[in-house]
Design goal:
The structure is a homohexamer of 188-residue chains. The first copy, chain A, is of the alpha/beta class. Helices cover 28% and strands 43% of the residues of chain A. The first copy, chain A, contains 5 helices and 9 strands, in the order E-H-E-E-H-H-E-E-H-E-E-E-E-H. A 6-stranded mixed sheet of chain A has the order 5-4-9-8-7-6. In chain A, a hairpin with a 2-residue loop joins strand 4 and strand 5 (101-104). At the A-B interface, strand 1, helix 1, strand 6, strand 7 and strand 8 of A face strand 1, helix 1, strand 6, strand 7 and strand 8 of B.
């Protein structure tokens, strides 16, 4: 135990059903420390015609894309300075909090903030993590930064963590922490 | 839809069952963007005598304590320099990664690392987040730091985020990011 | 087959659960002509704490009273000219259709309509029938009328059928058919 | 809640399964006044080979035709004086109760009864209603009559209601009420 | 997998429910060679009021006693020559087949058959086995015999196996095989 | 009642699913003496992608072959002295117990034991029975023997019963009882 049955409308891909099964397994294990082999999840698919809520058949809501992949794509667009793509992924009211730069709302502000700090920066990812909190999907990306200081000297292996919130498939918030200032302080 | 049935052994408290129900709701919503009212979770309790795996009855594994509460207690013990309590919550092989201080393994190392950095530091929490990844519980604590610099000057409102990993109820890893260096750099 | 499982919140009385089980049995047999012994209904009660919709626990909606009993009470109140009780059972917008008297909306209109037709009339019931149509409960009452014509002569055994609609426990509509005119025509 | 699962043998058409799902929804709402969106019905189809009762597989009983459609066809046959078709839909022991004509058993009796009453009559239907009572399907047809009096004068808009009982697909009983006598009385 | 849910009426003792769960586990393993820990059985108890078949509530059939215990009691009664008790456990039409003695129907015949074969015989049981075949419970008892030959010489360790059939709680048939003749032949 | 749902991975043949359904029916009836028509078994097949245990999908274990057929084949191979086929069906540690010949481990020993007892022997089967006991499948074969005594005289109609144990598809044990010695004793 636990044994979990999840009844869903037919129409989700195998990858989506397995994502669901894994999420439910993790959810169960968050509360019940069962031996892993003792956690059973069964996805039951209902043909659309065999399901009614309130006397009406319902179309299955398309599955959310993998939020980690969405954030990876956003960060890649930012790194490539592809503002058009990046902006298309943002919700109205999007806000960013960077070290010593709270409350940025436009990607251009972020670029202005970054200008005196480094010539360029790129990310190496250690891992992405995503989970749901009521209506909000929270995604963490973490790893290390490499790039060049304004004077052209290279840097690397600077730890960072980004936290994102998404609602209805759009990014509403980004919070960034990293060791850039720490590293720079040690250089001087 | 989805409709989720979770069969568990009898013996979990109402609080534990509701924690489970919420975790399952969130897990479903991570993949399927159903309207909130359309996500149904039903916990089914099985008396111990009515459940067999492999022809044997099983005792219910005690529910995990709320991992956010566990981390809050650990951080409180650290803040109070109650090393005995803090250490009791750590797994063998525990490792900490702080800004410019990777791979610490003993709390004493952390205290030594902190000594030249501030007289004291305390945390104000904005939120805790926890989720499960296979066998590992991941917990995030975030908020702001306040305290005194070595010269006695106060600081406050410095953003931080701590990431913890727990296995079998013990903390195995802590990663810390914050804006202390950034703030200090701006002071000078 | 069919085998029907109905999951409900805990809190319904045995009488209410059996009313539900019978209604589900009848619903199944309306479509599938299974041998009666082959129709299985199982009511599953969920403690309130074990059920969440949209991440929230829900209180069980109190069961509807037996609609046949409600209509019987209404008709008894009308027969006793207890207008206060009868009126309390009517929804706003209540409308009555009697032979040659469509669209009455006030009980006083009905009494005025009846005045030249009989001194009094009482009902003997053969049966009541109730079923649900989406949001509306439909109730039929049928049997025979007895009473006195305006000239004091008695009558009896005059067939009638009343059809009622109820929404949210209030009567919204009444339609009446009977053989009074037919009987009177044969008298003359 | 309620959440209703109905396990049936594979082989019912989509229209039949939806008829079943709607009937179960209505049955639940007859007793439990849940918000419509809170009533979930899931039809589970079992391949014949996956179901055994008493150790034997079973063939699915063919679904009943829509009883409202059956009665509509019967009334159409009667209106067209297609006695052959109408009679084929009657059970042995069929009985009719018309105004001032109880206990007719042969369609010819009905025609004889009607002869002095009108030259012809046709029905305009407002609605049909059907529900199950144990082994009996009850069907109501209601609307208005139009046609010609014996003297050739036309009539219309005369309310009627017919109640039918069917068992095993055959009509066993018909009860008719209408305002013909009332209307005729007002003419004179 | 497999995961087995058995819905039964409330009223069975814990011992009976566990006997059922074990029998279902064994039944599953007879066909599917799952790892033992992968076979889950859940007994669901339905309060009598929450179950209807054919629109009627049902009383739970009292569980069968453990058939191995019943046969053990029968054999003990026979060994003690308690014919009254033994006979009370037999169905009408009971028949016994012993070595070279087919078709005995009365316990007295068995005693007469045994008279020239041994002074007395007693059983040491190695094991009992029981399983169901449609309406018939089959029970095997096996072990060794000890006792005295007609000449008073002792014997022991003679293998035997008894096969019983029970229907509706009564023994309908007994078949006995053993090595008595083989042993006796070796003596001479 | 009982109503039994068995969730299995997709991939079992219709014959295998029905074998499972019958075994579950019998298991239920071993404990609960329900009327046969009141025992419902539903096999639910889960596509491999819709089932996870411990967060991993699982391949369905191939169903066991019918153990009665396996034993029938073994006995046929022995009768035909096809030692190669017979031996391939035996587990390491296989042991046989024959009348006055306990603890044989090699088929050759059996042949040596049989040599002085009969020229040849063949089996006519009345029935096979199989059931599961934890990890062990028990199979009974019973019927009558016919053949020739060493002196060439024929014999027939000698009752026998063989009991087999199988684990993981291999025979681990055979116990044999019959009336040969009894019959021979009566000849002399």
């Amino acid at each position: 135990m636990p044994v979990i049955e999840a009844h869903v409308l037919e129409g989700y891909s195998e990858e989506e059903r397995q994502r669901l099964a894994r999420a439910l397994t993790d959810a169960a294990c968050l509360v019940i420390p069962a031996a892993p082999d003792a956690v059973t999840v069964m996805i039951r698919e209902n043909p659309k015609a065999n399901y009614m809520r309130g006397g009406k058949t319902r179309a299955p809501a398309p599955a959310r894309p993998d939020p980690c992949e969405q954030i990876r794509a956003y960060l890649a667009a930012m790194e490539a300075r592809d503002m058009h793509t990046a902006r298309s992924m943002l919700a109205d009211g999007f806000v960013m909090n960077f070290p010593a730069a709270p409350g940025l709302t436009a990607l251009e502000e972020l670029i202005a903030w970054a200008a005196p700090r480094y010539r360029f920066v790129k990310k190496t990812y250690d891992q992405f993590e995503a989970f749901q909190k009521d209506r909000v999907t929270v995604i963490y990306a973490m790893g290390t930064l490499y790039g060049e200081w304004p004077n052209g000297a290279p840097f690397e292996d600077i730890r960072f963590i980004d936290r994102f919130e998404m609602t209805d498939g759009k990014i509403t918030r980004q919070d960034v922490w990293n060791d850039m200032a720490e590293t720079k302080a040690q250089l001087t």
